[in-house]
């Protein structure tokens, strides 16, 4: 019953049961059958039909339950082999169909697909509860757990035994039959609401497009942004016009460069009102229901709040510890915002703009400040930020750190023509895994950037290599033209690739402990650490080359970027941290009757949130938190992990630099390769020689360290 990993702003992977027909059964079997082909087998993307998902999942569920029942009914005394290892062998068919289903749900959604999701989500929750609330099975797991330290188990086997025992306990294995039934009902209700939330948000992102038609409306937009908008419009049947999509990758450059303040405000208001328009796609009632269900479940399971339940196994351990770290940073962040706003207002006043800085002005005037203070035009930088070249740079840096090479292949099926695939090889030439790259926005694809694991690495049943993917939402340029991305987008690419590297480096025995299957506030550590390699001269000099001349980015321009490193950190940290604080406060509110809009507004006021910028994810569009349980009461994880990553990168700078081979090997051995075989706090200490120090993070942001 191991599960593959879907990271970042992902919705819960729903699965469920519909009654199959005989005519569908044969095709549906293709979706759950063992993968065939090269590289140890590959996902059969060319065989997928939406109509086949329901019967395929039904068959896979039945198969998994039969496997589980056989373990539970075993009359032999429970052992690690006949119970824990037996569980590791279950659920393969369901994992395979769930992988395909998740890709279609997240990147190829259609009305037909969304209709299936609505029916399937609660049934998948019920299926999971049938397993996790199986009393006979839990008795066997608990017997192995109680004897784990005297049974001759390896540390990894003991960790796996704890993982199963803990998972079952936290799901309600020890509850009364009545309480178990209520927890199961709550999980089904939550699954329904997660799907509703996701589909409402996708509708607001997909259904709204602003078409620009005149030169006046395009004023200030660089050529590459215009080209991307033209391509997006043409894809939607509006050739000759320019489309601003209701996604972050489309609105951010518009807010940065458009000189039409009225249009900036219109675009900003539309984007930040997603899920909050009082219409059929409004998410406020759904959020209210989710919060009520979560706190009821937490109390049934013996926890005061959902936040306490979620953080029990995290590095932070308690909501209080997470809040303490956030509030350590918050005052410095908002103080910096006030400085940034004052600088922007000075420029606006000089220009006699006759305005007070509003949220739709922040990016626009921040760029003016950047240009004035640092003589740095980020659009000039963008000319050196070619998507394909930066992808090559990611691969090259991974080769320097971990010995990987990436070889493009075309002998495997893909889910969409935009997706490309690389074979990953070790320094000695052996096959490590496959990396799929799906970079472009399209209708039916959720917004954001994320990593998937299609198949977990393991050695338990022979050498099984991983298959990972990175997914983004860059807007395609004109045919034949390179796609230019922002510096921040480049950082995001390296971030998500860090998750992929975490999976590719995995070298463990059991799939449930593999790769990125670690604590939520630790999983972002390897990805955020990987961001540090984009700004290195070794990457920039080779791969940040001008899209027209091919010349590398000038040293003087790089120096300006470095000098401006702490620029706009008030905005960046406050935008993120306000979301993390509201997430935690929502889930610490207990039984309070919450109006999400009012709660957000009132709590931000208590925090003295600057009015000139919004939360990065307003509550009605907070997919991390309300499209699944994934990051609920856990959005703080990015800060927690960023403290780790800055402290860890200083291990490189204290040695011979970012490519120090000794530190890279220690990172591989103590962090990247061990998955969840070791407690993350212990793993970090093994790498760094001590606990992390928050001062490295504060120094990086230019905040006070005292």
Automatic annotation (TrEMBL):
<feature type="signal peptide">
    <location>
        <begin position="1"/>
        <end position="25"/>
    </location>
</feature>
<dbReference type="InterPro" id="IPR024079">
    <property type="entry name" value="MetalloPept_cat_dom_sf"/>
</dbReference>
<keyword id="KW-0645">Protease</keyword>
<dbReference type="Pfam" id="PF01432">
    <property type="entry name" value="Peptidase_M3"/>
</dbReference>
<keyword id="KW-0378">Hydrolase</keyword>
<dbReference type="GO" id="GO:0004180">
    <property type="term" value="F:carboxypeptidase activity"/>
</dbReference>
<dbReference type="GO" id="GO:0046872">
    <property type="term" value="F:metal ion binding"/>
</dbReference>
<dbReference type="InterPro" id="IPR034005">
    <property type="entry name" value="M3A_DCP"/>
</dbReference>
<feature type="domain" description="Peptidase M3A/M3B catalytic">
    <location>
        <begin position="254"/>
        <end position="702"/>
    </location>
</feature>
<comment type="similarity">
    <text>Belongs to the peptidase M3 family.</text>
</comment>
<dbReference type="InterPro" id="IPR006311">
    <property type="entry name" value="TAT_signal"/>
</dbReference>
<dbReference type="GO" id="GO:0004222">
    <property type="term" value="F:metalloendopeptidase activity"/>
</dbReference>
<dbReference type="InterPro" id="IPR045090">
    <property type="entry name" value="Pept_M3A_M3B"/>
</dbReference>
<dbReference type="InterPro" id="IPR001567">
    <property type="entry name" value="Pept_M3A_M3B_dom"/>
</dbReference>
<keyword id="KW-0479">Metal-binding</keyword>
<keyword id="KW-0732">Signal</keyword>
<dbReference type="GO" id="GO:0006508">
    <property type="term" value="P:proteolysis"/>
</dbReference>
<protein>
    <submittedName>
        <fullName>M3 family metallopeptidase</fullName>
    </submittedName>
</protein>
<keyword id="KW-0482">Metalloprotease</keyword>
<dbReference type="InterPro" id="IPR024077">
    <property type="entry name" value="Neurolysin/TOP_dom2"/>
</dbReference>
<dbReference type="GO" id="GO:0005829">
    <property type="term" value="C:cytosol"/>
</dbReference>
<keyword id="KW-0862">Zinc</keyword>
